[in-house]
Each structure stands twice: as structure tokens, then as C-alpha cells.
Specification:
globular; alpha/beta; two-stranded antiparallel sheet; oxidoreductase; Flavoprotein-like_sf; NAD(P)H-dependent oxidoreductase
Length: about 220
């Protein structure tokens, strides 16, 4: 059971990082193989971006920067993707957007054919998102129309084939108390244990399924 925890915050030492650590520790303790990909420390190549960097139509990554190719490999390996980020300007930080643009490529995450809808190449995987924000929950919905959630959850992850098993927001961080933050960390750990248990059940069902008969 491979879990990829993606920390989409450009500054180290954030609450987002603490939540990621709580999730990763609990998932490992529950039996999952966990990678933590921290975009605050990943030497991610941003510029210059060539047109060829933004597609992998045949599914291969030989033409990509080696760092990007390695990130693609981590995404492909993961059965479950967890994305954690703060809400900045009603959305998520540029470093996370850059990751999505450079890694979830045509030919890697989706592929257009003759029909209107693409083939979702990352189907069979699950995803969960966490977002911290200074705004109250109602303000995010009423004023921002949950722009970050719609963009990341629906227009990106679901578009590529992920089944979103949960979206959690932590509102009013700026005025939160230490006790409340501890509860949030406990929530992240609890959700990690739930996700790993779900993965274990899925793996057990697949292992018990009869093998396909060979073609005659």
C-alpha cells in the first residue's frame, strides 16, 4: 500500500507541514509505505519551461527533466495521494500549481481521444485533500465559492481519475488556539488510519478476485 503525501506549502515549519507529518506517521504505523514529498524543499525546476515539458503523449518520461521524471514516478507508484496546502488568494500556492502543471501531464494523468471526455489514466487510485485557511469556513464558501476545493478536487484530481475520499478544511488558523491545533493533528492521524484500512480492504478484495482466463 503506497501513499504519497504531497505538501504544497513553500515555507518550511508551517501548520500544513505538521499536519502532513501527523498523517504520514499514522499511515506508516498502520502498515502503509509512505513517501512525503515536500515542495518547500524539493529542487523543483520551474524555468525555462519548454512546450515538450508539458506533455508526455506516449506515456514515457525520457524527455523530461530528471527531477520531474522522478516526481512522475512517485505519483504513478502511489495507490493513495494526500495533498495538503494553505489557502492563498482564495486558491493554493504557486509551487503546488507548478507541480500539477509539470507532473500531471497529458499521457501521464489523462489522454484525449476522439470523444469529448478524456481517458483518466490515474483511475483506481484514491486521493484526500487538506486545506488550512485564515478565513472562516462560511467565508470560503460564500465569498470564494470554494475555488480551491473545486480546482484541486474536481478540475484536477477527479479529472485525472482519482476517487476523492475526503476533503478537510481547517478554518480560522490565525486565531486558533494550541488546543484546537492539537485536535486538528489528531484528526489528520485518524483520517490516515481510516485511509490505510480502506486501502487494505481494497488490496484484499483484489487479491481474492479470480484471475482472468487466458484468451483462446
Amino acid at each position: 500500500m503506497h501513499v504519497l503525501v504531497l505538501v504544497g506549502h513553500p515555507l518550511r515549519g508551517s501548520l500544513t507541514h505538521a499536519l502532513a507529518q501527523a498523517y504520514a506517521d499514522a499511515a506508516r504505523a498502520a502498515g502503509a509505505h509512505v513517501r512525503v514529498l515536500d515542495l518547500a524543499t524539493t529542487p523543483f525546476p520551474h524555468d525555462p519551461v519548454r512546450r515538450a515539458d508539458l506533455a508526455a503523449h506516449d506515456g514515457t518520461t525520457d524527455h523530461l527533466d530528471p527531477v520531474v521524471a522522478g516526481l512522475v514516478a512517485q505519483v504513478r507508484e502511489a495507490d493513495h495521494l494526500v495533498v495538503l496546502h494553505p489557502q492563498w488568494w482564495g486558491s493554493y500556492p504557486a509551487v503546488l500549481k507548478a507541480f500539477l502543471d509539470r507532473v500531471l501531464l497529458p499521457g501521464i494523468a489523462f489522454r484525449y481521444g476522439t470523444g469529448l471526455l478524456p481517458r483518466r489514466l490515474l483511475r483506481g487510485r484514491t486521493a484526500r485533500t487538506f486545506m488550512t485557511m485564515d478565513a472562516p469556513r462560511a467565508w470560503n464558501v460564500l465569498a470564494y465559492r470554494d475555488a480551491a476545493g473545486a480546482s484541486l478536487g474536481q478540475a484536477t484530481l477527479a479529472f485525472c481519475g482519482y476517487r476523492l475520499v475526503g476533503r478537510t478544511t481547517f478554518p480560522s488558523v490565525r486565531t486558533s488556539t494550541p488546543a484546537r491545533r492539537e485536535r486538528w493533528l489528531a484528526d489528520a492521524a485518524r483520517l490516515a488510519r481510516r485511509d490505510v484500512a480502506r486501502l487494505a480492504r481494497t488490496h484484499a478484495r483484489r487479491a481474492a478476485a479470480p484471475a482472468a482466463l487466458p484468451a483462446t
